[in-house]
Amino acid sequence: MEKIAVIGGGNLGIAVTEGMLKTGINPEKIHVTRRRVHYLEPLKEKGVNVGSNNVAAVQNADLIILAVKPKQAEIIMSEIIDHLTDNQIIVSLVTGVSLEAMEKEWKIPSICFRAMPNTAVELQESITCISHQPTTTENIESIKALFSTLGPVLIIQDDMMAAATVLGACGIAFALRFIRAAQQGGIEIGFNAENALKIAAQTVKGAAELVLQNGNHPEQEIDKVTTPQGVTISGLNTMEHQGFSSALIQGVLTSYNKIK
Ligand SMILES: NC(=O)C1=CN([C@@H]2O[C@H](COP(=O)(O)OP(=O)(O)OC[C@H]3O[C@@H](n4cnc5c(N)ncnc54)[C@H](OP(=O)(O)O)[C@@H]3O)[C@@H](O)[C@H]2O)C=CC1
Ligand SMILES: O=C(O)[C@@H]1CCC=N1
């Protein structure tokens, strides 16, 4: 990709930009916008173009990454629409706005994709789900290649984007709440906060790697830890009696129903 505009340098826009910078992309090729431009000072110091002029940013860009809230996106689209060309590519990270709505309601002339990374994109540890219209045949590989530098990529149907948002993007918060709870437990049994957090976080990372690298079902790995009449199974069963898995599944469904 030659020049990239990131419209909306907030939590996700900054994370995506930081991730792209880590891939070695030339910072001068990136232009990030937001209204309170002073929050973009750290990116500016790294050589990224920053500003509040969305039109200037898109006029110069081959790829436009839209990273604003849905209501903000409507306003911004009306501002930039006349400056878009049909050879530009728009990748929307906006939650809950389908490709069909982007084309019909926003009337975007450019090639549209949706992408759903999570904030670990900053560390190139996201999983990014990408969707495109069935009629879109070009540019899929280049979009896939860009996000593949930021973690694994899955191409999915656009109607699965809400599910991707919940499992992948909200999932970061769900996993972090687990880590926090484990840390709190760790403090009760004697660790200071710093060590409890380090153990909890690294243990989650290790558990994830066991699933990802071994390709095993979580329960296979759990079986290896649960000594008969041992301490792990007692703790696990108490958590389940308290509704651990059920609470997580219900939370996922609540988030999903809210997007829908
Ligand atoms: N955070 C996450 O983990 C994820 C978020 N998403 C989706 O990504 C989108 C962005 O989320 P998030 O980054 O969390 O939200 P933020 O509110 O952090 O970021 C949006 C940014 O847009 C800027 N903005 C608002 N109006 C304009 C404008 N007119 N021109 C330029 N910039 C503008 C705001 O800055 P200012 O007020 O200074 O203009 C703000 O920083 C949302 O649709 C969200 O649902 C998707 C996946 C994960
Ligand atoms: O909470 C939200 O609505 C957005 C979508 C995914 C992550 N943040």
TrEMBL record:
Q: Which domain of life is it from?
A: Bacteria
> EC number(s) on record?
1.5.1.2
This protein's UniProt keywords: Oxidoreductase
What is this protein's record name? Pyrroline-5-carboxylate reductase
**Organism of provenance:** Halosquirtibacter laminarini
